[in-house]
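Protein modeling request. Please complete all fields; requests missing the sequence field cannot be processed.
Requester role: graduate student
Desired output: 3D structure, token encoding
Chains: 1
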Amino acid sequence: MTNDQLRIFLKVSELESFTQAGEALFLTQPAVSLQIKTLEQGLGVRLFERKGRQVLLTEAGKVLLPYARRIMDEMADARAEVGQFSEESQGSLRIGASTTIGVAILPAILAGFVRSFPAIRTHLSILNTHQIIFDLKTSEIDVGFIEGELSRTESQGINRSFLAQDRLVFVDSRDAPHVKGEETSLEEIRKLPLIVREPGSGTRQVLENAMLDRGVLLDQFSVFLTVGHTGVIKKLVGMGSGVAFMSVLSLEPSDFDSLRVVSVSDFHPFRDLWIVTPKRGLTAPARLFLDRVRDDLSSPRPEAAPDPPRPESGGGD
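Delivered output (317 residues):
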């Protein structure tokens, strides 16, 4: 029974899918299957059984689950405690992250990282995707987290790996709504005052690409305001100044005091979030941080964060 086998076992049990577990852990589906098969052979029991498209724990798997979680937690604690005495745990770490990732995903990971490695001087900059790529190539940052796709030129000298998946939702004011009812369409949105992120942001790029797939351009919408910060957009929409598309990850429970999510019947844009690193190699602190990111994102969570409230009658994702 190895660390990798238990890590894969936990992710498969969480996602109930070999394929999705592989994507989350940056492994191929055959590699995941092989590790599970080897673990089962070592224990002499079956840990999973297929039920339709789902992969469910057997009774033996359910018994192993709490032990596997405790083992992985203990190993993470041990690495953190021992890591304080490593030469790698010193130096500086400069991180560039797009707004959604920097606000919604990284804070909890950073909090644990700086507690484990207090001697590493860590700096986080919130930037748009294009600026992150530029700073990575000019050695202004050591590692980046982006929301958008890269052009062929931007991809040169850059390694990219999957971080997570996100989706854009359409938000309106709760108290001064522009949309009547619980559902709308792209055609109706074209007539509304739309607030968008600045050119170069990952959110805007995904929005424009998704619109293009539908045969429309952002220029055909009534864009009356461009804002470079999601928090400001949320406040403007809440006050009834306009409507907007934004990441579901950027919405917090308190936002729904002033905002509501309106289902768009014919438009459900998804996007992948990425880690970007320089091909010239990583600094030791950057390697430590990415190990923490992958450990934290692959760890099973007791309860998945719920999606924001959505109309029951809307065309769901």
